[in-house]
């Protein structure tokens, strides 16, 4: 059994390469794009319709041929998602020897990382894994979390972020700051009041709204002292 260390990696400006063009490569490619990968190369003789669409839109560079080692040059991260086990194993070895982060779709523990299942709500990212024990359980738990933390969380986290910036600038007392920020987080969106907002799309938090929220929370924190 392997132990894994979870990280949130910044991929902007980093070259990422996916080898393979089937449903698994497609899922990993979409995950990389959601994760902000800018320079994304996909290499495969056959690619899914969705990958072809992404290529036509300029979101990925699709090399419609078999993989060559030159494809991995300068890569920060590589995903081996072909259906050729020997190739995936060779890619894992090649990447590891060059310090490139590598994931293999069919030989999880042979790569340097595995991909968790992810629920995104703006800046809130929930990632989970069973370390390869049961991808089916991971997918099931993801569906549960998806229902539990609805779209309203994106706006809620945006507001918490705006509030935090304001509180850090305006409230000097560290104890009071911590109380205000904790009280704010405890106002988790409740389904009835927030889901409509969440579904209505993203709105930039209003300065005045945040100011009023901070004052209300400061009063509550003072009362609680
Ligand atoms: C989370 C998710 C992320 C993603 O891939 O995007 C993911 N697998 C997902 C789906 C999925 N995987 C499989 C099916 C078919 C149904 C089934 O057989 O169960 C489905 C479809 C489904 O369930 O919907 C089968 C499967 N998976 C692996 C192997 C090979 C092996 O075990 O070595 C085989 C057998 C292949 C074969 O036999 O040919 C390996 C890995 N899959 C991992 C992640 C890593 C461990 C994560 C963990 O344990 O938590 C790891 C080790 C490596 C890696 O890929 O990084 C994504 C959830 C999607 C979501 O987010 O909803
Ligand atoms: N990690 C996971 O979540 C997961 C889930 C299901 C299956 N798998 C495994 O992942 C692998 C891929 O699954 P899939 O359903 O996408 O397979 P698939 O057969 O649909 O696609 C395989 C892709 O690999 C490409 N390919 C083959 N040889 C290549 C080469 N030399 N260079 C570049 N590309 C090459 C093919 O053109 C094709 O696009 C399988 O081995 C499967 O066992 C992993």
Please, could you describe this protein's structure?
The protein is α/β, with parallel strands linked by helices and 225 residues long. It folds into three domains: 1-115, Rossmann fold (3-Layer(aba) Sandwich); 116-149, Double Stranded RNA Binding Domain; 152-223, no CATH class. It is 47% helix and 14% strand. It has helices spanning 23-34, 49-56, 85-97, 135-148, 152-170, 174-186, 191-199, 207-223, and strands spanning 15-19, 39-43, 61-63, 77-80, 101-104, 117-121, 124-128. Strands 3-2-1-4-5 form a five-stranded parallel sheet, sandwiched between helices. Strand 1 (15-19), helix 1 (23-34) and strand 2 (39-43) form a beta-alpha-beta unit. Helix 5 runs antiparallel to helix 6 and helix 5 packs across helix 7. The longest helix is centred in the C-terminal third of the chain and has 19 residues, at 152-170. The protein is elongated. The structure holds ligand PQ2 and nicotinamide-adenine-dinucleotide. The site of ligand PQ2 has 22 residues, from helix 1 and helix 4.
